[in-house]
Amino acid sequence: DIQMTQSPSSMSASLGDRVTITCRASQDIGNYLSWFQQKPGKSPRRMIYGATNLAAGVPSRFSGSRSGSDYSLTISSLESEDMAIYYCLQSIQYPNTFGAGTKLELK
Amino acid sequence: EVQLVESGGGLVQPGRSMKLSCAASGFTFNNYDMAWVCQAPKKGLEWVATISYDGSSTYYRDSVKGRFTISRDNAKSTLYLQMDSLRSEDTATYYCARRRMDAWGQGASVTVSS
């Protein structure tokens, strides 16, 4: 199975900060990488697909990038509504596997 | 508007069965592969199973193989998850989603306990 190692597990940041979350894939997954946002008591929401593509309706302050086997989600200027848990997901191979999540909190 | 609405969750004893349903609307259901994803209390997301648009192919995580069955009725635009031989570790919220995870239901809570 492909392991997705996500870091950090939690972080605190201030409004307006630039924030980056990373997932490292244990095998080649090409660009079959998505990012999800989940707020308490809510269903996950897809933010990024294909490693770098912004999902419909997602603010442009969110972006995705890839460097080798490292995939990153960046929020260019943090807003209060961005406080949530973020997960990555590889979908190149079954079983699809999620990262363990990053809890983003306000400093 | 795309909508996925799960039903059928609740409390069930270990070893018993439960069947979840997911009613789809707002899109052409039989054009889409579908999936189930679960989330144990205060834990992360786990992919459970995927079914192809026509039901001809299914995929499962190892821990549910032989116990869970994903199926669909395209005439009813409904996805199912039959869960047999339930264990306490199956306790979770189960979400149905389109395979690309661009649409999710609200989740159905399943508690396996005596």
Structural description of this entry:
The complex is a heterodimer of chains A (107) and B (114). By secondary structure, chain A is mainly β. Helices cover 0% and strands 50% of the residues of chain A. Chain A contains no helices and eleven strands. Chain A has strands at residues 4-7, 10-13, 19-25, 33-38, 45-49, 53-54, 62-67, 70-75, 84-90, 97-98, 102-106. In chain A, the strands form two sheets. In chain A, strands 2, 4, 5, 6, 9, 10 and 11 form a seven-stranded mixed beta sheet that branches. Chain A is globular. Chain B starts with a strand and ends with a strand. At the A-B interface, β4, β5 and β10 of A face β5 of B.
**Count of alpha and pi helical runs of chain B:** 0
How many distinct beta strands of chain B?
A: 10
- Largest interface by Cβ-Cβ < 8 Å: A-B, 21 and 20 residues
Percentage of residues assigned to helices of chain B = under 10%
Q: Based on helices, strands and strand pairing, what is the structural class of chain A?
A: mainly beta
Report the order of strands and helices of chain B.
EEEEEEEEEE
Strand content of chain A: over 45%
Overall spatial form of chain A: globular
Distance between the termini of chain A: 36 Å
DSSP strand content of chain B? over 45%
Outline type of chain B: globular
* Helix content class of chain A: under 10%
Strand order of the largest sheet of chain B: 2-10-9-4-5-6
The quaternary state of the protein chains shown equals: heterodimer
Largest sheet of chain A: 7 strands, mixed
Stretches with pLDDT under 50, minimum 5 residues of chain B: none
